[in-house]
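Weekly modeling sync, notes
Attendees: AB, CL, MP (scribe)

Item 1: holo prediction request
CL wants a bound-state model with 2-phosphoglycolic acid before deciding which constructs to order. AB pointed out that an apo prediction alone won't tell us much about the pocket. Agreed to run with the ligand included and paste results into these notes for async review.

Input as submitted:
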Amino acid sequence: MRIIKAKDYDDMSRKAANIMASVITLDPSCTLGLATGSTPIGLYKNLIAAYENGNLDFSKVHSINLDEYKGLSGDNDQSYRYFMNANLFDHVNIDKNKTYVPNGLEEDSDKACADYNEIIRSVGGIDIQLLGIGGNGHIGFNEPGEAFEKETHCVDLTESTIKANARFFESMYEVPKQAYTMGIKNIMAAKKILLVATGSAKADALYKSLYGPITPNVPASILQLHQDVTVVADEDALSLIKEKGLL
Ligand code: PGA
């Protein structure tokens, strides 16, 4: 596992974007595993800038996103499809037909998940999987306690997540109660993993994930068993690891 220290959020975003850009440059028809959340937004901005400068070509790239809310269409501004269009796809020359997000409108969970696993296989697997990390060590919607063996599956959102999301919707009825997420097994099958973390709220999760016991209670701890992981984290996110004298 490589740990790349960044000064702050902008530095982290630039360094992580350079790694992803190098994968695209070396293999223009690669498959990117992409993530939503606030952490990758700066990375995506850097990729857009590289495209605008003529340094990156997305025309042959495929992308596979980690997760999507069940019940939301891609035009809903809370959906992860909408997020990806707004933060990356609408600004580069990627073919949207080659970009995949779980089908939130598929009501049959087994079918939605089986279809997604098949999509991942049909594009030949993921060359580089981008991950953020939750304050509790979650990756995608794989929350503490989830089995490591799972592929794409449907998860029940926690009561606190549902309540936190309620403010974005007109009625409680519209707030998603479930999500489809790639499982740890899909994530571990990616050839490379790029984990990005920023801010002191991630310091504990990062320390436990990189140096603690490997346990489903800290989902990201499984990454210790992957052979090609790069972590790009800023000083705040690395603060506890540094305090323990491990960096
Ligand atoms: P964040 O989310 O980037 O918005 O902090 C990360 C995550 O929960 O995976």
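Recorded for review: The first strand starts at residue 2 and ends at 6.
Action items: CL to compare against the apo run; MP to circulate these notes.
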